[in-house]
Amino acid sequence: MPITETHDLHKRRFGRNLGVALSLVGFAAIVFGLTVAKIREGASMEAFDHTPRVSITPPVETGQ
């Protein structure tokens, strides 16, 4: 015998679940957007990889 009536509790749970789902989708969209924006910069990205970076090393002067 299937349940044909939905209880008030089910309606409230659905509302909460919908809110949580929308929050998660919004958070995922923000993270995805930030990732895409970071990747588009591309050339200016420098990670910490234990190697000297050319952009911050001082120029070497040849003293003659």
Summarize the structure.
The chain is built from one helix and no strands.
Relative strand content: under 5%
Instruction: Give the helix level as a range of percent.
Output: 40-55%
Can you tell me the overall shape? rod-shaped
Q: Count up the helices.
A: 1
Structural class: mainly alpha
| Number of distinct beta strands | 0
If you compute it from the alpha carbons, what radius of gyration comes out, rounded to the nearest whole angstrom? 27 Å
SSE pattern, N- to C-terminal: H
- What ranges have pLDDT less than 50 throughout 5 or more consecutive residues? none
Keywords: Membrane, Transmembrane, Transmembrane helix
Protein name: Cytochrome C oxidase assembly protein
Transmembrane segments: 18-37
Overview of this structure, please?
- The protein has 64 residues and is mostly helical.
- The protein has 1 helix and no strands.
- The termini are far apart.
Which properties best describe this structure?
about 60 residues; mainly alpha; 1 helix; rod-shaped
Please describe the topology of this protein:
Blueprint: H1 8-41
